[in-house]
């Protein structure tokens, strides 16, 4: 039975490469055509493959529906939380998780710093979209026309002298973030607060969330915080792997 299941599942990545006929499926599996036909018929009955009019087989609509349903039921916060806690336990600083929804970037999780100085951020609260590291990552992943349209509509409050002053500068920063794959906010929202951020990606490579580590200058300097970037990126990669199902769950705190 396990061999039959294994063979049936092996058909799916083959058809992901494009439609294939019975002979091609049998050759790839290393089985007789009659065996391949039985497997294809079973998959067809469940809507996982579809036989075209030219007698070739392709992936079925049911497979895409199942994938979409699975993605919609994934909770990135639930998956990420344990990783965020382990990172916080290791470095001691505040860790945030954020998503982009309806033209706002919102914090959906936060693990507090162990130090007496705390940040005023709250779960469910929008971030300062033109300066926050997590916002830069989420917006940098948008298609170019969406980035430009959004940038033109935003206000650019000068929270500090380091805040993003206008749309042109913001688009330049997003292009830089998109290329390097990480972001910072070094005193752009509050003079005394710095953060480093990394993206969390889904199975299609798109950014579904972003995480950051933030700390005040009285606890750690900006340069010292930047040395934590590799650890932050490894944590984000571990969350991405678990969220997308690409890799086994690993301890991202090492």
Automatic annotation (TrEMBL):
Keywords: DNA-binding, Transcription, Transcription regulation. InterPro entries: GAF-like_dom_sf (IPR029016), HTH_MetabolicPath_Reg (IPR050707), Tscrpt_reg_IclR_C (IPR014757), Tscrpt_reg_IclR_N (IPR005471), WH-like_DNA-bd_sf (IPR036388), WH_DNA-bd_sf (IPR036390). The keyword Metal-binding does not apply. Coiled coil: none annotated. This is IclR family transcriptional regulator. Residues 2-61 form the HTH iclR-type domain. PANTHER family: HELIX-TURN-HELIX TRANSCRIPTIONAL REGULATOR, ICLR FAMILY, HTH-TYPE TRANSCRIPTIONAL REPRESSOR ALLR.
